[in-house]
Structures are given as C-alpha cells and as structure tokens.
C-alpha cells in the first residue's frame, strides 16, 4: 500500500509495506534489556493442578501464558505525564493519534565535568531541521546492538538536558523517542527535570492548565546503524493499557520522492 505526504511543498510517497521497526521485543530470557533494578520479565504457562497451559507438555490444546513485566524497565515503552503526577493519567487516553512526521537524529552525548554523558541543547539545535515535525527520534552513539539486551541498572546512562525538552516543546514536538532507559539521569534525587520540561509540568500535585496531556515520551528503542538520519513517517503503536505507560511498537517508514 502506498500513501503520500507533503513536505516543503514536495509530495513524498510512503511505502507501507516497508516498515522499520525500532522497538525492542520483550522476551523471558537474560537477553531482555533491563533497567531500574528489576529482574528479567517472566512469560510462563498457567498451571492449575496437574494441567499446564502449554501444548508441548501434552495435556493442553492451547498455549496459555501469564506475563509479568514492568513497561518502564523491560523494553520499549511509551509514557504520558501520568508517570510523574499524583493524579492518575493513562497513556491510553493521552495518545489518540498514531501517525506523525518525525525526524531521526543521531547524537553522541557530550561528556560533562561531573562525568555524565548528556545530549545538550546546542547539539539538538544544530541537528534540528524545521519541517513542522511532531516527533523526534534520538539515536545515540555509540550504537552497538548490545543496547537491545543492555542491563542499565546502576550504570548512569546518558540522558537529555532539560533545556533540550524546553526547546522541543517550544518547537511543537509532541512525541519524543530515545534509545535510552530514561530522558533523565538515572539517580537524580527525583527531580525528573527533562520529563517535567517536556510535559510542561510545574507541580506534580496540582496540574497546571498548560500541561501537555497529549504528549508522550518513548524510551528504550533501538535504531539500527544502517537507518539514515532524516525525516520519516512514524507510526506509534501502544497496547491498550490503562496505565501511565504501555509497551509500544514505534515503526518508521521512509519518505520517497
């Protein structure tokens, strides 16, 4: 199926049969990525007495698994501002549109004097190309395939400067995607400056009127090295979880002149 989009007065085609999946699948092995000090997810058959919900065990006609996981810790996930507010907000209510023009940007986080690696405002300003994009996808360097099974706990991964999120908010970016476990520093004493800046949340107890209820942050993606920087058509898919976050499947499509 072919669709089209207009960009800078040029019409581009989108071949929907050529998806570029930038999500990391959830598996019940040690190859699953893990953050936030948890163990790997569990996918295992239901057991009721001597009945096991697994066809290969011989006494079930179906495979019938329970799955235990944490969306923030166990792979690609999309979250809304309910992640940081006292009041409950669901990502299932926040994300109501699923197709966006997005810019893919590759950045090598800069070493700071405190030893942290940070995506800075200057880097993002230099990479930004104004096209009215509603989504931005950050691929960080180095970019080994080991990111897909990384164990992030206690490693102080790179993160975004809060000024970056103010910039993106001002540019009208509603959907921020990163190949990191968080847009914020792993251990930041609960400040969450980048999250708050992107969602424009000034008080987690009493939501301000201009907080960004429909904006989302997607973390723990993986963009392969052979995918070129530039503009793509983004399909951001989530499972219908009534929760602050959901496992998700962001998919890019190339724009063809």
Question: Could you explain how this protein is built, in words?
Answer:
Pfam families: Cyclase. The chain has 257 residues and is mainly β. The protein has a single domain (2-40, 71-256), classed as Putative cyclase (Glucose Oxidase, domain 1). The protein contains four helices and 17 strands. The chain has helices spanning 91-94, 121-127, 162-170, 193-199; strands at 2-7, 10-15, 20-21, 42-45, 47-48, 51-52, 65-68, 77-79, 99-107, 110-111, 117-119, 135-140, 159-160, 175-178, 216-219, 230-238, 245-256. Strands 8-15-14-12-9-16-17 form a seven-stranded mixed beta barrel. α3 runs parallel beside α4 (193-199). The longest helix has 9 residues, at 162-170. The radius of gyration is 19 Å and the shape is globular. The model has no long low-confidence stretch (mean pLDDT 95).
Task: Summarize this entry quickly.
Pfam families: Cyclase. By secondary structure, the protein is mainly beta.
Number of helical runs?
4
Strand order of the largest sheet: 8-15-14-12-9-16-17
Please state the average pLDDT score. 95
Q: How many separate domains make up the residues?
A: 1
Instruction: Give the percentage of residues in beta strands.
Output: 25-35%
Q: Can you identify the CATH class?
A: Alpha Beta
Helix content: 10-25%
Low-confidence stretches: none
**What CATH architecture would you give?**
3-Layer(bba) Sandwich
Q: Which structural category fits the helices and strands?
A: mainly beta
Give the overall shape: globular
Question: Over the alpha carbons, how many angstroms does the gyration radius reach?
Answer: 19 Å
CATH homologous superfamily caption: Putative cyclase
Number of strands: 17
CATH topology: the name is Glucose Oxidase, domain 1
Largest sheet: 7 strands, mixed, barrel
* Separation, N- and C-terminal Cα atoms: 16 Å
Task: Write down the secondary-structure element order.
Answer: EEEEEEEEHEEEHEEHEHEEE
